[in-house]
Amino acid sequence: MNTLGTKYRLTLFGESHGRCVGVVIDGCPAGLKFDEVSIQKELDKRRPGQSEIVTQRKEEDKFEILSGVFNNYTTGAPIALIIWNKTQESGVYELRKNIPRPGHSDYTAHIRFGGFNDYRGGGMFSGRLTACYVMAGAVAKMILKKYGIDIVAHTTKIGTVDSVDFPKTIDEIRKQSDNKVRCADAKAAEKMIEQIMEARSKMDSIGGVVECIAENVPPGIGEPRMDTVEGEIARAMFAIPAVKEVLFGDVQSKGSENNDAFIIKNGKIMTGTNNSGGALGGITTGAPIKFRVRVKPASSIALEQKSVDVEKMKPTSLKVIGKHDPCIVPRAVPVVESVAACVILDLMLRAGVIPNVLKENRRA
Amino acid sequence: MNTLGTKYRLTLFGESHGRCVGVVIDGCPAGLKFDEVSIQKELDKRRPGQSEIVTQRKEEDKFEILSGVFNNYTTGAPIALIIWNKTQESGVYELRKNIPRPGHSDYTAHIRFGGFNDYRGGGMFSGRLTACYVMAGAVAKMILKKYGIDIVAHTTKIGTVDSVDFPKTIDEIRKQSDNKVRCADAKAAEKMIEQIMEARSKMDSIGGVVECIAENVPPGIGEPRMDTVEGEIARAMFAIPAVKEVLFGDVQSKGSENNDAFIIKNGKIMTGTNNSGGALGGITTGAPIKFRVRVKPASSIALEQKSVDVEKMKPTSLKVIGKHDPCIVPRAVPVVESVAACVILDLMLRAGVIPNVLKENRRA
Amino acid sequence: MNTLGTKYRLTLFGESHGRCVGVVIDGCPAGLKFDEVSIQKELDKRRPGQSEIVTQRKEEDKFEILSGVFNNYTTGAPIALIIWNKTQESGVYELRKNIPRPGHSDYTAHIRFGGFNDYRGGGMFSGRLTACYVMAGAVAKMILKKYGIDIVAHTTKIGTVDSVDFPKTIDEIRKQSDNKVRCADAKAAEKMIEQIMEARSKMDSIGGVVECIAENVPPGIGEPRMDTVEGEIARAMFAIPAVKEVLFGDVQSKGSENNDAFIIKNGKIMTGTNNSGGALGGITTGAPIKFRVRVKPASSIALEQKSVDVEKMKPTSLKVIGKHDPCIVPRAVPVVESVAACVILDLMLRAGVIPNVLKENRRA
Amino acid sequence: MNTLGTKYRLTLFGESHGRCVGVVIDGCPAGLKFDEVSIQKELDKRRPGQSEIVTQRKEEDKFEILSGVFNNYTTGAPIALIIWNKTQESGVYELRKNIPRPGHSDYTAHIRFGGFNDYRGGGMFSGRLTACYVMAGAVAKMILKKYGIDIVAHTTKIGTVDSVDFPKTIDEIRKQSDNKVRCADAKAAEKMIEQIMEARSKMDSIGGVVECIAENVPPGIGEPRMDTVEGEIARAMFAIPAVKEVLFGDVQSKGSENNDAFIIKNGKIMTGTNNSGGALGGITTGAPIKFRVRVKPASSIALEQKSVDVEKMKPTSLKVIGKHDPCIVPRAVPVVESVAACVILDLMLRAGVIPNVLKENRRA
Q1: ipTM of the predicted structure?
Q2: What's the confidence (pLDDT) of residue A274?
Q3: Long-range own/partner contacts, residues A318-323 (CB < 8 A, 24 or more apart)
Q4: Is the CB of C111 inside 8 Å of chain D's CB atoms?
Q5: Residue A362 pLDDT grade (very low, low, confident, very high; cuts 50, 70, 90)
Q6: Interchain CB contact of D361 with A (< 8 Å)
Q7: Which of C66, C83, C84, C119 to mutate to test the interface with A (most CBs of A within 10 A)?
Q8: Is C351–B356 a contact, with Cβ atoms under 8 angstroms apart?
Q9: How many CA atoms lie within 13 A of D168 on its CB side?
Q10: Dihedral sign for Cα atoms in the order A264, A266, A270, A272
Q11: Is B19 within 8 Å of D77 when comparing Cβ atoms?
Q12: What is the dihedral of CA C292, C296, C298, C303, to 10 degrees?
């Protein structure tokens, strides 16, 4: 349903064209100094209208705290964060409310909810709701940071362009991917932008791949056998609209090449390589958690497409006119990073590695 | 932990070299005529020693019913199924109990459980436990069959060989993939066997890809937003040892090509293509659910590999001598199919489409 | 944590002296005509300041819909309902923030959250949050009504006064208990008011018992063995502040008297008596679900009480001055009724008896 | 369904007249020295045939370990424990399979499972399954003991006889209640036995009350707001057949008497009294958790009772002949204690107070 996580638990609400979008974060440890600025910064990365390659919709995405923070610290009570929607034109949705957009959730939502779903802008299924993931992820990252855990997501593919030449450290990736396409390979980034602009000019869209890396997650995290690190992350990734694939590590073709040898380094057991993507048997190895997520091309395109009128039960066609993203990959990057942060924090809380109260802050 | 599913719920127990492996199935609808033969048939597909390309271990994998079946029908009570282990040589595991096999869960299990884990044959992490998935999946398939749902898994890649020329219907795939590698493309199958034999001769292993297709799942299944069809399936797939990737449908590079147009056929709304793999917005479209799973090369290989002695904290090496699979993909095929059946049944029960009692059987 | 229910699922947020209190209702079937008036009516029953026997605080408790309702119908998306708090005097709480009120959650919240809890008015533990239960219960009752299920709660004891002479039908109980103490025995009601006024005059408080009856719940509801009707209701009741006891039916001393004989009436199997309170083996019998809940005397009293200063670790004393209820039983009545409605709806959804979409309303 | 607990999680299987009864314990910390003798000792307390006041059925209740224990220590893998059933006479159940016993789950199980339930001896609903709680509770107590937590249950009422004069310490209660009725008041115990013998002679049954006390549970345990200590315990208690009431502490009539004053003792904050039963706001105070459970008179009695034939839909009567308990309270005592141990351990694991690996045992 609309709740994700066991101990760090998000519950989303709101719709694209309703009053607001919001998230209730339950299980956030008490005693976290709440940094509102960092949340807004993360939201700004996802926000529409940042550059010419994304949607030109104007949404400020300023958030408000409804509960759970007192005297600038988290209290242990549920944290409710909300973004009020600005008045939006819903007229176009009325016109095509019976004509589901191909590739979008319009049809399945109609079936699942017997036609009572809010069809304006995808309603609860709108990508706009991913702002809630970003808020919850920003809070999760504040906590993970205290435990030395750093997470970055970046674009590794858009259209047919691969990011090939990118740095190895999270810090460098973060710096170098601070561009319109969130790609750490500057040359590839240029070509990606070209392909996006081309798609836009053709009223079409293109997809891509986002990689995410989390460093310093201690070994031993993950709840065997069913609640694996990979499974919990994958399940959450598929709750991001447009994600169709999740892939961990770099599988090699032979066992002898794929197996990551164990070595001792600085008195600690480690793996020499990290083909496993940081998990064996569903439990972290201590190597970076590393996975890639395939994002399909945005389904809302202005090209004419075949559909049906579900009320008249007749074939028809539609053009999805409006301010849509020709490529949602760049805006998916902070979302993937945020969801990963939420899941990793959840797994660490479940493993008892992070406590319910951040003790170093314990009130005298 | 060791429980999978919400309404059709598996709890696994047992170890590779313990007394048994078993599964408790909770939530199975009452009134199902229990077909023991079909369960054994499914187990036989996974069983070791079927041909020269898999492990030569001898395990009969005969199962017993401990509870939940009465007068040949399911009662609604938990169904416990068990396979007793035959006496196995554990001596070799004693010798290397402090030397984790690269690529295996030995090390992470050691960390997670403070060294108390049963290290013999991987203990609870052993692939042997997948027999439990197969038993539970066979039961799930009995029920799904009554609702017209058919599921097949088959090998689409082993080593560098792709299955290219294979039939489109589930029935045909099932028939044509009834070979040692579970591949529905006869020519590819031959080459796959060659590559497996080559890997074996080199004391190495190779991986591959399994595709799974489920037909006639009605539209509207899936619990938005977090419990998506894709996410629930993916999470379960990652609970199968060696799975590193889950991919739904066939993502096309442009939105205009990727979007599945809606059409009307036989008075019903359908999608003309099925690039989405049968799900939009995390909810089934009514088109076949279609996904692929990447299986890494088996980690237990006889080639010498680097590792460490975790007790002495010293580098060492090991050769995993024993009756191991040079390629586990063929034996993973029935496991993937079974786990898919369990998840799909669970989602249908959650959606209320399948009732708690199979009414057509309702006792007079 | 802060989520209750499996298929009809509440997540609460907000604090007594924060910006708001609110609830996200997930899993509410789509297609329910949303009756805002009935929600407000229920809220008014719980609202402070209704008469001289309850707290004289002025709170309007007007609610707003944030999401999940579109064109007056539920959409299947999460329904977020919120009540904004009016400006409140928090000064008094600052003064005694280190002095936990005996019998209140102040101390345990302090321990559990390392002193970061919002101590003003009990923060998230405030009885004010029960307004959220009432909103969610009002929605649940709208649905249950469509299935012929009627629920009433009424006061059966306050102080030492028992309600003895009260009607048998839900409708009559509802009518006759429409008084200040929510007691269906008019004579007892008068004495109850006297005892409350006496407690108030002595700066003390008194407790009581609330009975709840739900009629027309079909037989067969409840998820054996662990998710029993009684257990699920009891667990939820203990999530209401001040509840210390839950008791089902009327246990008789001998088996021969306690067992409810089965009879046939109007062609249906029923029980002649209902000592079991409508459940056997954790599953409904079809007889009314009937239980009683003991509410302890309110802990906030103006009499001087011993406590400690948790910062200075010194004994001290405090008087809880303010607008407090001398008896919260009357205001607990709508809360018990509401929580019961939520749990019963949840169990009916889990049993598949109520569908995800209210079909009779299905959009053409 | 058949799973109880979040981190210490029991899944039950088996039936009264099936092959076995068993439990899978998931989440038991690794590194626990497994004391089989103490489990058997607990089972013996619940076992039938101990004295003349309980059922004269002969069941040895010898358990076996199927998984999860290796070299005498828990491994972190699921622990499956099983008791094989001896051959039992099921003939009598065939005769009355369509005639539900009043007060028993026969009828509701029939409805819930469409008549497919195993009706012999109550099937999965049989009190025999409580042996599984006792096994799981014995394991839980081994762990709790390491953390200084001691739990005792004892009979405080049978028929009309109250236990009045009993000791205050757990140790003393344990010693003095080591009698046939598990009552720590020797004089009351005698009268209880008389009442049981009288009920037996009249082919009737009587009920009673069990009190349970858990000492040294640290303050701050419990997951507010919904997963309260009281609610989690109560929910589990209602999963014990025949329990109809759960009551925490000793509610006093006035707030001034009921509120437990905070005091400082030995440098620690405590409550002077313990009317709250060890919990405020759903969180432990550090005072003993104390609750009482009402057990209804056993429903299986030899006296003639009215019932119906569910197949012929005709009134009939039945006498439940067989070896039944005239009073199940004494045998419920170890069950209540065991279930309490499971829930308290679960809550402590959830709070992170007990780790996943018992560190003091950590393998070198």
Answers
A1: 0.97
A2: 98
A3: A318/A96, A318/A99, A318/A101, A319/A203, A320/A101, A321/A92, A322/A92, A323/A48, A323/A55, A323/A56, A323/A57
A4: yes
A5: very low
A6: no
A7: C66
A8: yes
A9: 1
A10: negative
A11: no
A12: 150
Neighboring chain B residues of C222 at a CB cutoff of 8 Å: none
The pLDDT tens digits for B225-236 are 999 999 999 999
Please state the separation of Cα C238 from the chain's center in Å: 9
Q: Could you give all domains of chain C from N- to C-terminal order, each with its CATH number? A: 3-361 (3.60.150.10)
Predicted pLDDT at D360 = 60
- Residue C322 has what pLDDT? 78
Of the candidates C22, C134, C130, the one whose C-alpha atom is nearest the C-alpha of residue C85 is: C22
Judged against a pLDDT cut of 50, whether residue C364 lies above it is answered with: no
By the 8 A CB rule, do A211 and B213 touch? no
Across the interface, whether the CB atoms of D14 and B356 are under 8 A apart is answered no
Residue A9 tokens read as 């638990």
The answer, for D269 touching chain C at a CB cutoff of 8 Å, is yes
Restricting to A residues 306-325, those with a Cβ less than 8 Å away from any Cβ of B are 306-308, 310, 313-315
Q: C-alpha distances in angstroms, A353 versus A279, A346, A348, D217, D350?
A: 17, 10, 5, 21, 12
* Average pLDDT value for chain C: 94
Nearest CA in chain B to D73: B116
DSSP type of residue B163: P
Three-state helix/strand/coil letters over chain C: CCEECCCCEEEEEECCCCCEEEEEEECCCECCECCHHHHHHHHHHHCCCCCCCCCCCCCCCCEEEEECEECCEECCCCEEEEEECCCCCCHHHHHCCCCCCCCCCHHHHHHHCCCCCCCHHHHHHCHHHHHHHHHHHHHHHHHHHHCCCEEEEEEEEECCEECCCCCCCHHHHHHHCCCCCCCCCHHHHHHHHHHHHHHHHCCCCECEEEEEEEECCCCCCCECCCECHHHHHHHHHCCCCCEEEEEECCCCCEHHHHCCCEEEECCEEEECCCCCCCEECCEECCCCEEEEEEECCCCCCCCCEEEEECCCCEEEEECCCCCCCCCCHHHHHHHHHHHHHHHHHHHHHHCCCCCCECHHHCCC
* Over residues D114-126, mean pLDDT: 95
What digits encode the pLDDT tens for the residues C143-157?
999 999 999 999 999
Q: Which two three-digit tokens encode residue A319?
A: 């053009």
CB distance A71 to A110 below 8 Å: no
pLDDT reported for residue D38: 96
Interface mutation target, options A6, A10, A20, A24, chain C, most CBs of C under 10 Å: A24
| Interface touch C357/A116, C-beta < 8 Å | yes
The pLDDT confidence band at residue D363, using thresholds 50, 70 and 90, is very low
What's the pTM value of the predicted model, to 2 decimals?
0.97
Facing residue for A77 by CB, picked from C15, C26, C73: C15
Which of A4, A161, A235 is the best substitution to test chain B (most B C-beta atoms within 10 A)? A235
pLDDT at A361: 53
Q: Could you tell me if D252 and C297 are in contact, meaning their C-beta atoms sit under 8 angstroms apart?
A: yes
D positions 324-353 inside 8 Å of A (CB)? 349, 351-352
* pLDDT tens, residue by residue, D215-272: 999 999 999 999 999 999 999 999 999 999 999 999 999 999 999 999 999 999 999 9
Q: Which residues contact C227 (CB under 8 A, 6 or more apart)?
A: C6, C282, C347, C350, D1
Q: β-pairing, D161-162 with D150-158?
A: antiparallel
pLDDT digits (tens, 9 = 90+) for A171-186: 999 999 999 999 999 9
For chains C and D, what is the number of CB pairs under 8 angstroms?
Answer: 309
> Which of helix, strand or coil describes residue D194?
helix
